[in-house]
Amino acid sequence: MEIKILESTDKRMIVEVPGETTTICNVLVAEMWNNKHTVSAAFRVEHPLVSNPQIILDTDGEKPDKTLKVAAANIIKKNEALKKVVKSMRV
Predict the structure, then answer these.
(1) What is the C-alpha separation between 38 and 41, in angstroms, rounded?
(2) Which of 17, 62, 77, 83 could form a disulfide with 37 if both were Cys (CB 3.0 to 4.6 A apart)?
(3) How do residues 33-70 score in pLDDT, each as one tens digit?
């Protein structure tokens, strides 16, 4: 997975996620909203056939890249927990 930084300041970050669908953007944005420093988090796709999704993140002063990294780490932890539950299921 590639992330291209389009804009980065102390409180705002816009990244493009080439080759990905909006699914990963939905998950990342939802997880970023769990961070108390997130002021706004959203994504946009200008045109689904010819553009890549962009994630827009605004914070209250915490570095936005840190917020994004924490969200990604939390998603990984949740996926590992889900993986354990699914493996333990008997079908």
Answers:
(1) 7
(2) 62
(3) 999 999 999 999 998 888 999 999 999 999 999 999 99
In terms of pTM, does the model score above 0.85?
A: yes
pLDDT of 50: 86
DSSP class of residue 71 equals H
Burial of 3-21, coded b for 16+ CB within 10 Å and e otherwise, reads: eeeeeeeeeebbbebeeee
How many domains, in total, are found in the chain?
Answer: 1
Whether residue 68 contacts residue 56, with contact meaning beta carbons closer than 8 Å, is answered with: no
Range of the domain at 57: 4-88
Question: At 19, which CATH number?
Answer: 3.30.1360.10
The rounded distance, in Å, linking the Cα atoms of 27 and 72 is: 9
